[in-house]
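## tool: complex_structure
## caller: assistant
## args:
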Amino acid sequence: MSSTFVQQFIEQGGARSTDRLPTWWKEFRSSALKKLETLEVPTRKDEEWKFLKLKTLAKTSFVAESDAALSLSREEIAARLLPESSASTLVFLNGRFSSELSRVDELPEDVVLTNWQGLLDQDPGLVRDYVGANDFWKDDLFYNLNGANFEDGAVVLIPRNTVLEKPLHILYVGSGKEGSYASHPRNIIVAGENAEATVVEEYDGRDSGAYFHNVVNEISVGANATVKHFKVQRDSTDAFHIARNLITVSQDACYDATAINLGASVSRNDSYARFEGQNIDCTLDGLVHIRGSQTSDTHTALDHAQPNSRSFQLHKVIVDEGAHSIFNGKILVRKDAQKTSSNQLNQNLLLSNKAHIDTKPQLEILADDVICSHGATVGQLSEDQFFYLMSRGIEREHARALLTYAFAAEVLETITVDSLRNALEAEVLAATVG
Amino acid sequence: MLLEIKDLKASAENTPILKGLNLSVKPGEVHAIMGPNGSGKSTLAKVVAGHPAYEVTSGSVSYQGEDLLELDTDERARAGVFLAFQYPVEIPGVSNASFMRQAYNARREEEGLDELDPLEFDDYVREQLKIVEMDPAFLDRSVNVAFSGGEKKRNEILQMAVLQPKLALLDETDSGLDIDALRVVAGGINSLRSEDKGIVLVTHYQRILNYVEPDFVHVMTNGKIIKSGGKELALELEDRGYDWILEEKEGAA
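## result:
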């Protein structure tokens, strides 16, 4: 018998309608439900969960999205809309798709940008090959909670040789005000051969009250394709956010991701990238900026299975007040993956004596002709830099904000969507002024 | 009096470095402070600018008649005190232009003037760039990051030109410069010279004084000024070194 926490999601999953679902989806759901019977909330004895406390999450009971419906006007979400994506935005309110707030038009022929329920009206078979294809987390509780419960999310299919000039924006707005809901968004992003796209995935919290975003992303980058993926998580500080990003990259392709984690009470953002070809470039950058009693955990695994590919990772963390950040970055270079080049750096900035950092870069190298480097630093703002700025007339508090911002800037600069980058830069600056 | 230092004693980590120093600078004057390594020259400049690593144990520093030691580092800067660093600090992620604009606006705000927006400041700073013959590309680069030694020193003089301090302390700004860069830096210092501003030039070498003519030259050793004179004293030091002054002093004592 599973714990109350798991049981509530077994019940919710079992109660979800299967009327419109294709057979393969029904089977996927029922096998996840079955798997859940055998799973428990991980404890600190589990190596992968050693530092992240899930006690508060496990004690909270959640209702399904439909019992906490949120309604917002366009004006109320205007500040979060990206001008660049005025014709390519999907909006979800408390996990449910809002066709009123979404805007999809002027996309090149055969590009699919829709939600799962919309896909059921078209051809759900289009995504069949991608759901569950990368099964890295097949025994993971949260992956299976999602499998048993997902009803909606974004579906992005970019056909071969198609280049999208404008970024796609997937916006999840969450509020616990209508009830503590759990939502299990599943986002599918598929870029065909030679395709190019930029995707902004954003979680935005408002009001107080707990809710739970339990995300699974399945991303497939075809041969010689390029996908830029920017994730911004600013869920409310009462919320829980857990995300599993499954990335499969093909020959000659490029996948560049930057994950910005600012919100949630407890957040976990894990990525697993599998290299299924040679000459691949893959970047998993990250910025975590938390304060108060926030906890944020990032686990990544870059799986070099074949030769001649490159991976890069810059993960920066700023912890203020009593916040706690965890990073575990694994680089796997399998036996055949000769001439792999991999570079990983985790830099942590402690702004308070009560803040806490756990970091564990890990290299597992089985090939013998590779260039791999990794490192982690933990530091405070430098007094020399403070003195320099203050000697020019800049007040200490302002200098602190400027230096903190400067630490984060290197990651923010990787964001190629101007309005998003500018907004984040302003936010990071504002958040550091005491 | 612009700056008046009386019997100043200061320590770093409980080690006394300044041991009863006196110095008076009037508006319009250029003072050169020379002396062997370890004499406390740089410490003097840093203490006046308010470096937190040094503790003033006794004595007084007044600036335009006010107690300078009562002010924090940033307050001193906004009141018109400027230190050109011997080793300028790198600040990755902050652009040179944005850094100087914020510093300049802090000063303007203090003086009750309107802040300049980035475009207005750009016009202003480009004029100052000409003084130090710097490429405008330096404005977009992170503060001092990947600058050569000479570029860092020019950048200090650029900041000085932008901020137009009333009292400029230049801590070995001439060290490590080739002759072309030295000429440019000296030109920048001379452009600041005016009858309402004072300049204190801390230097190890007489060379810069060929370009920036001092009104007074002071020799510092062991935390005190032990001899003062006019610009001819610098030439004598160049010829004879410091030992004769030390001997002269010991002879007198």
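## assistant note: Chain A has a mean pLDDT of 96. The interface with chain B takes residues 382-385, 387-396, 398-399, 402-403, 405-410 of chain A (CB under 8 Å). Handing back to user.
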